[in-house]
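residues and backbone:
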Amino acid sequence: MRALYIRVMATATTRLEIKAIVMHRSTHEPTVILQDTDGVQLIPIPLGAAEAGALIIGMDQDGAHLPLPHDVLLDFFAAHRFSPESVLFHFSSEHCTGSLLRYTFRRHRYALEVRPADALTIAVRNSLPMFAPTSELERARRPALPDSLDVFSQDVLLLSHRSSL
């Protein structure tokens, strides 16, 4: 496993929230739909079945769930006094290209490269805010989902959603 630990530099970011988790009825591929807090941009990120399940459990507000591997990582952080702060997603014009789990240690800010699906799960299950560089979102501006993933289509099953946006 390749891990990247970097010092974090300041850059303008836009906050993202999970709008929905959907699954295409014929392909059975789960996808999380992120939305900027202005409600302008919808961004699909494909997931595996395990990550989709963990996200749905994490979005359940009762908190009664068994620990998952993502929770173990955060327990390790806590035991060694690392303080997770947020998740930062990077985008090209086509899709999500990577993500960073941002944290502090001894008053310095760092980031750990993690898979986007894992970053989503960690953020949701630990109430961490999610961001993306504003410049990357502007380049990837797409006010609607790709035709292949229309959440209002009969081909898509809505697994979970948040109406707070």
